[in-house]
Structures are given as C-alpha cells and as structure tokens.
Design a protein that fits this description.
The complex is a heterodimer of chains A (272) and B (290).
Chain A lengths: L2 H7 L10 E11 L2 E8 L11 E6 L15 E4 L2 E4 L4 E7 L4 H7 L6 E8 L11 E7 L4 H9 L4 E6 L2 H4 L9 E4 L6 E2 L2 H8 L5 E6 L2 H14 L3 E4 L15 E4 L2 E4 H4 L2 E3 L8
Parallel strand pairs in A: 8-9, 8-12, 9-10, 10-11, 12-13
Antiparallel strand pairs in A: 1-2, 1-7, 2-6, 3-4, 3-7, 5-6, 13-16, 14-15
Helix pairs in contact in A: 5-6
Chain B lengths: L1 E2 L2 E2 L4 E3 L6 H8 L2 H4 L6 E2 L16 E4 L2 E4 L7 H13 L6 E5 L4 H12 L6 E5 L15 H11 L7 E4 L7 H10 L4 E4 L3 E4 L14 E5 L4 H14 L4 E3 L6 H9 L4 E4 L2 H4 L3 H12 L7
Parallel strand pairs in B: 3-14, 4-7, 7-8, 8-9, 9-10, 10-13, 13-14
Antiparallel strand pairs in B: 1-2, 5-6, 6-12, 11-12
Helix pairs in contact in B: 4-5, 5-6, 6-7, 8-10
Classes of the chains: A alpha/beta (272), B alpha/beta (290).
C-alpha cells in the first residue's frame, strides 16, 4: 500500500495545526487517579479511540520541581462528548512527576493548553470477531471510549491496588484483577485473558504497562489471535517533529506519535 | 524581505531537525499548508546513506529545555530526493535543505546533487559532525570549516548557509573562516552538548550517551554567540536558541541576526513560528519593559 492509501484508511482524526486553550470543567479524584474533564471549544468532536493529546497547563507550567515541566505531556483521551461548540474531553491521570503533578492540580475554570487529537487509533474488529479489551492501570483510559463504540465487548482490567481499581467504576461491566486481591481476583490481567481466549474469532485491544503488553503480545501470538496494542513512549511534540518517541519494530524504528500509538502486535518482536 | 537573494515573506525559519513538514501534514492535513508556521522551511539533515538514528531513550527534559540524542535518522540522499523532496516542494515557502557529510567527498556529493534541484532554494551545511578523515568536528575549527567550504563552494551557485556549532572554542572565528571561503550566510546555534544520568541506574540516560541541549535554557548563550558572530561577519546571520516569543526574536535581531529560527518551541506548539512572527511584527523595534 502506498503511504497515501495507508493514510486514507488509518483511524486518525486530523488535529488543528496549533496549540489551543481548553477550559477545565471538572477535576475529580477517582481512587489513585484524577479524572479531568475539559471543554475544547475549537477541536474536532470525533477523535478516534486510541488517539492522544499533548497537554500543558496554560499557567504555572515550568514552576515545579527542578523548574519542570517544560514539555507538554501525552495522554490518550478517555472519553469525548460533542458539546457546542467543540467537544468535552476526559483524561485519566496519576500524579507521578512534575507534569502530572501540575495537571492534577488544575481547577475548574483554569485553562489547559492542548494539541490534538494525534496519532493513529484502534481499528474496529472484523465483522463477526469478538472484541476483547485488556487494560492495565492508567492504560484503561483509551479503552473507555473504545468500549463505548463497540457492541458488548468483553473487558478485562488489572490494577496495582484497590485505590487504582476505582477506575474500573467507569466501565459498565468489567472483570477486574488486582495485584493485592483487594478488588476482584488476585491475579494478573493477562491470566484473565488466557482464560477468556477461546477458539472463536477474537480481536484483542490492549493498553497498559510494557510488561503487560508484552505478555498480551506473546499470548496472542501463541494463540494466533490478532491484537492491537496502544504503546507508550516519552514524547516532546506528538506530531513527528522531534523523532524522540521511536520504538523498535520488526522493520526498524517507527515514531510512535505518528505511526502509533496503536500498533498491530505482529509488527513487534517485543512490546518491552 | 530577502535572505541571500531569496525572497521571504518574513524572518522566521525553523531550526533544522525541529519540524518534519511531511509528518506534520499527516497529523494536521492541508490546514498546515494554509497556516504554515515558517517563512522558509529547513529540512532535517540528510546524509549520503540512510540512517536509523540512535537507540532510545532519545529525550530528557531539563529545567526550561530538553536534551535530545536522535542521531540524524533520514532516508539517505537517494531516498530524500525520491520521496521527501517532491513533498517538501509542495510547501508554500522556500526550501532549505540541510546536509551533512562525514568526509569532504560526501559533503561534495550532497551539495552537488541537492544543488541541481530546482525545488531547493538554499543549502545548509550541518558541520556539527566529526570528519572521519581528520577526526576533527568540521565546524569546530576555522581551518576545517574553510577546507569544507573550499571543496563545495564551486559545486553550486545556490546560497550556502553554514550551521555553526556552539561547541567550538571560538564560533566567531569559524564564522569568519566560512565567510572568507564563500559562505553566503551562517546560522547559529546548534544544540549545546550535554548529558543526563538515569536516576534508577546511575548510568547515562540517553541511548546515545550524550545529547544536545535546546530550549530557553540555552537562550542567553545563543544570544551572546549570535552577537559575537554578527560583529565579525558581513554575511547574513540566522539566529536561534531557545526563542519562544516575539520578544526573544527581537532580542536576537537586536544582537545582530538578520533572520531567526524557532526550534524546540515548535515541539510545544506546532504554530509557534506563526505566533512568534506575529508577536515580532507587533513589537517592532520598540523597547519593552524589563
């Protein structure tokens, strides 16, 4: 396929070519996470599940520990609701560093700068193929909007702790595993996946930490099940300018922001 | 305005390697062409052979800036001419192609073959690499720079811009040598060499071990180098290094630059070049409050 033909069929909603300001509507605790909702008055109302946005607080971005953050931070959106004008976007985040610390402090009414939607999202399953969603931790975020677009998908979610597993409440019907057994089964989510895979046609959609994605990749490769993995990599720009976010594939490095973040698992030797 | 005889709609370029117009068109569509952020577009550096670039991790955030260790991934000269050049020719602004050779022969081949293409308005020589024959960084020493220019100057009538490295004992002396050997302009600064340590392993964080520092963290250094260079040469100076606002751009022009380039700020906002150009036009040469 030519690059143009590939571009025409890839699940990508184009982003406006500039950073814009959205207005934070809500910032709520959800166990160990924050769920931030922002009104993007100038963005497209139809991002594709798996696409991401580069986020930066409009004020006090750079006044944190070590004078950081400086660069925006990449987040897959969790939900999008058309709103006139524009769209209301929800992001799930955990405060783990100077960028996420600042984003977690955003108050309703504050401005949040964003660029997006960026990257390539999930492709719908082939007709007749059962969608099976596998999420780990903060990686459950893009599965939320994906689940809304699918017809009764099977959803398996794994978390470190009960506080993290609060995020499962966003999903109407998900099987949950936790590392400590405080919520759902004491198991790895990939153990649930191994039990759930049967001989029927299935498409696996996964997002989560690299070891989880690698376990999903290996399991699906062994069972001959097609899988789409949403990977993560540190990014400076999100639109192919910096070449910083490359991941190795069977055919060399690719820029995850441009050719991903969702990749067919069979393009990878390993998701680690 | 004019730069080396090429007509530009304004003074804002991009730093080489800080904006991939082909990739950005995939993300933003043709709206990118309608609101193109720069008044001339500088390509990523191309080399004779294709390069995969350095192993990740390639980025590290610093106070007010970032380190990168990308390693010049590119399709190589043939791939660039066949695939990238026709797409870059669709941009609404003049095209500057950045080239790097690891020997003077390589540099000569790049300049000759890029220079014969009508789509190319100017050529920028990235001399921030070691000459494998002498072991010296071409742009770190006046004699090396002059020898490179002597070799390539007769090969093209197109304007040649020398991209100066700040990692030189005296960048102004290198600029002077470049001018004497026939360069039409100089651009500066490239990134400052730096590194970061992985807090978990106490080993170098970047896959390429060392990297280049950019962003507002280097602005004061860049401004001084632009000033020193502009005092010593008569050819146009393209100034860059942490420019994030119209006021920063104005400072570089005041220090002696004829044009400015936006680099790392475009990572934060793809339209930074447009915004900075607009702010600069609004400020003019008027002093502002400290």
């Amino acid at each position: 396929m030519t690059p143009q033909a590939a571009a025409a069929t890839e699940p990508r909603t184009l982003a406006p070519p500039e950073r814009r300001l959205s207005r934070v509507a809500a910032n709520e605790a959800l166990g160990a996470y924050r769920l931030i909702s922002t009104h993007d008055g100038h963005g497209p109302a139809d991002p594709r599940p798996g696409q991401f946005f580069m986020l930066a607080a409009a004020e006090r971005w750079g006044a944190g520990a070590d004078e950081r953050p400086y660069l925006p931070r990449a987040f897959s959106y969790a939900r999008a609701r058309p709103e006139r004008p524009g769209v209301r976007l929800d992001f799930l985040l955990e405060a783990i560093g100077p960028g996420t610390d600042r984003l977690a402090q955003l108050s309703p009414g504050e401005e949040l700068a964003l660029v997006g939607p960026l990257g390539v999202g999930f492709r719908p399953p082939e007709p007749g193929s059962r969608p099976l969603l596998v999420g780990g931790g903060i990686g459950t975020a893009p599965l939320l909007c994906l689940a809304e677009q699918l017809d009764s998908p099977t959803i398996l979610l794994g978390f470190r702790s009960g506080a993290h597993a609060e995020a499962a409440r966003l999903f109407p019907d998900a099987a949950v595993a936790t590392d400590d057994g405080s919520v759902g089964r004491r198991a790895l989510v990939t153990e649930l996946l191994a039990e759930e895979l049967d001989d029927g046609p299935t498409t696996v959609y996964a997002c989560g930490p690299a070891p989880m994605l690698e376990a999903v990749r290996a399991l699906c490769a062994e069972r001959g099940v097609p899988a789409q993995l949403a990977l993560e990599s540190g990014m400076a720009c999100g639109f192919g300018a910096c070449f910083g976010c490359v991941v190795p594939t069977k055919r060399g490095y690719i820029r995850l922001c441009l050719d991903g973040p969702v990749l067919d698992a069979d393009r990878l030797e390993s998701a680690l | 305005m004019e730069l080396c005889g090429v007509s530009l709609r304004g003074p804002v370029l991009n730093g080489s390697g800080t904006f991939d117009a082909i990739a950005a068109r995939r993300a933003f569509g043709d709206a990118l062409l309608e609101r193109f952020p720069f008044d001339a577009f500088v390509s990523k550096t191309i080399t004779i052979e294709p390069r995969e670039g350095n192993p990740p991790p390639r980025l590290w955030e610093t106070p007010a800036g970032m380190l990168n260790s990308i390693g010049l991934p590119n399709k190589g000269l043939d791939g660039f001419l066949a695939y990238d050049l026709p797409r870059l020719a669709e941009l609404p602004v003049p095209l500057v192609v950045s080239v790097m050779g690891f020997t003077r022969d390589e540099l000569a081949a790049l300049v000759a073959r890029v220079g014969e293409r009508d789509e190319v308005a100017m050529i920028e020589l990235n001399v921030s690499c070691p000459n494998v024959e002498t072991g010296l960084v071409m742009g770190a020493e006046p004699g090396e720079t002059a020898a490179a220019l002597d070799r390539v100057r007769p090969l093209t009538a197109k304007p040649l811009i020398v991209k100066l490295t700040p990692n030189a004992l005296e960048p102004a002396a290198v600029a002077e040598a470049a001018e004497a050997a026939g360069a039409d302009a100089v651009s500066l600064v490239n990134t400052l060499k730096g590194m970061a340590i992985d807090p978990r392993t106490s080993r170098p964080w970047l896959g390429g071990v060392s990297g280049g520092l950019s962003g507002p963290a280097i602005r004061a250094v860049a401004l001084e180098q632009v000033h020193s260079v502009a005092e010593r040469v008569g050819i146009p100076v393209i100034g860059m290094g942490g420019i994030a606002s119209g006021r920063d751009a104005r400072d570089f022009l005041a220090a002696g630059a004829d044009c400015i380039a936006v680099g790392t700020e475009s990572f934060r906002d793809p339209a930074a070049g447009l915004r900075i150009g607009r702010e600069l036009a609004g400020i003019g040469a008027t002093p502002t409050a400290v």
